[in-house]
Amino acid sequence: PTGPRPFEFGTPYELMHETLAAESEAYYEKNGVLNLLKRGAATKTAPQRWQDEPTATVGGFDVAVCFESRLFETVTADLLQREPKDFTPLHVICIDTRDTAQDAVTMGTTLLALVQKLEAADLSQELPDTA
After folding, report:
1. Contact assessment for residue 47 and residue 41, using Cβ atoms and an 8 Å cutoff
2. Is 66 helix (H, G, I), strand (E, B) or coil?
3. 26-51 burial, b for 16+ CB within 10 Å, e for fewer?
4. Could you read off the pLDDT of 96-108 as tens digits, one per residue?
5. Which reaction does it catalyse (predicted)?
6. Which pLDDT value is given to residue 4?
């Protein structure tokens, strides 16, 4: 392989893994891509585009967490373009995280503590101090 290997949104992580492993398992294993795909498959079937989610679905969320500033900007820009009639208050949180196994574990632990506090809070009032 000589460059990025793009896949369409909605392509199952397992299919991406099988495809890349068949192309060059040693290469994609060495650079960590196969491990990232395994991690992704453990949480959901396929990558999703926020903008493709129906407004009725998005309007029912209390909290959205983004792990990159670029994604945070995408989500907030998308929210500003939607009709707000079906929305409840939505808190969008950005936690910049490098896409590595170690950072995923560290941030996963931190995020779990945060969402447990958020779940116990009345988000229609104010966010809890998580410091």
Report:
1. no
2. strand
3. eebeeeebbebbebbbeeeebeeeee
4. 998 777 888 899 8
5. O-phospho-L-seryl-[protein] + H2O = L-seryl-[protein] + phosphate; O-phospho-L-threonyl-[protein] + H2O = L-threonyl-[protein] + phosphate
6. 82
Q: Residue written as tokens 């909290």?
A: 63
Q: What angle do CA 128, 77, 74 make, to 5 degrees?
A: 85
3-class state of residue 67 by DSSP? coil
pLDDT at 32: 86
Task: Give me the pLDDT at residue 111, please.
Answer: 92
Q: Dihedral of CA 49/51/56/60: which sign?
A: positive
Question: To which residue do tokens 């998308």 refer?
Answer: 78
pLDDT recorded at residue 75: 95
What is the predicted pLDDT for the residue at 129?
64
- Give the chain's residues under pLDDT 50: none
CA 104 to chain centre: 11
Burial class (CB in 10 A: 0-12, 13-18, 19+), 13: buried
| φ, ψ for residue 37, nearest 5 deg | -70, -40
Helices (H) and strands (E) in the chain, counts: 5, 2
